[in-house]
Write a structure and sequence with these properties.
The protein has 230 residues and is mainly β. Helices cover 10% and strands 32% of the residues. The protein has a seven-stranded mixed sheet, with no helix packed on it. The chain has a three-stranded antiparallel sheet with strand order 9-1-10, with helices on one face. The longest helix is centred in the last third of the chain and has 19 residues, at 189-207. It starts with a strand and ends with a strand. Bound molecules: 2-acetamido-2-deoxy-beta-D-glucopyranose (2 copies). One 2-acetamido-2-deoxy-beta-D-glucopyranose binds at residues 28, 30, 60.
């Protein structure tokens, strides 16, 4: 019996270098709405202390943008709502930093959290950290349309995104991974590529990358068949 050794190079978008306009997690919680008071929209008060540090986009009928208007305590389905002190970056500014204020009793800014914000044309993405205590959340406020891109609701933003979906931003935004498959039988190219891709996905599953990897962008770069000497 002969064993066949395939070595494949996969082009993978490096999560750390992926444009956050593409590599982000969507938060679709309607209860983040500033108009949700205490448990009006939920059964229990909400918390963002379990949130993983990473890039997020808000997208729900409850709002798509962190409120720039101070929010008093007891709104956004929590005790201590977080709102943006200052304004969002313009499209020209691109990425910027911001300060989220969390309201306490009689104090609209009882503690602060520095975040990053990026203007993606028709929506914003935010690099958020977990809140240091429970019953504090990032709030989404008024549904004012964005100043650029989609002017209506911010919902049909995929089409008007300024960044083509799923394209690597630069060469440094990718990495090559070599996978070896040994098979007792002849594998056709397509099957071998599928098996190899599954292997790479399994490798990454255990590492839990900060941002999701766009597997549709993973492609075979090198294709060597190594038949060992009998
Ligand atoms: C939010 O997204 C999750 C996962 O995609 C989905 O199951 C859920 O129905 C969504 N909720 C709303 C309110 O859209
Ligand atoms: C959220 O707030 C907007 C106004 O800012 C309102 O139109 C909308 O109905 C609210 N949605 C929920 C789920 O409370």
């Amino acid at each position: 019996m002969r064993s066949l050794l395939l070595i494949l190079g996969f082009l993978i978008l490096d999560s750390a270098h992926t444009d956050p306009c593409e590599g982000h997690t969507v938060l679709n919680d309607t209860w983040r709405n500033t108009s949700c008071r205490w448990t009006e929209c939920v059964s229990d008060l909400k918390c963002d202390n379990g949130l993983r540090t990473g890039w997020y986009r808000f997208k729900s009928s409850g709002g798509w943008k962190i409120s720039e208007i101070p929010v008093a305590e007891g709104h956004c389905s929590t005790a201590s709502p977080g709102w943006l002190q200052g304004s969002h970056p313009t499209l020209e500014q691109g990425e910027g930093s911001g300060t989220v204020c969390f309201s306490g009793i009689g104090n609209p800014c009882s503690w602060k959290q520095e975040i990053k914000i990026k203007n993606c044309g028709s929506y914003f993405v935010y690099e958020l950290k977990p809140t240091p205590y429970c019953n504090a959340v990032y709030c989404t406020g008024t549904a004012t349309p964005p100043t650029h891109g989609d002017q209506s609701t911010g919902e049909s933003s995929e089409q008007s995104s300024s960044v083509p979906a799923g394209s690597p931003t630069s060469d440094s935004g990718s990495q090559t991974i070599n996978v070896e498959i040994s098979s007792m039988t002849e594998l056709d190219d397509d099957t071998a590529k599928k098996v190899a891709l599954r292997k790479v996905q399994q490798m990454f599953q255990d590492q839990s990358p900060k941002q999701p990897i766009d597997w549709d962008q993973a492609e075979v770069q090198r294709w060597d068949v190594d038949e060992p000497d009998p």
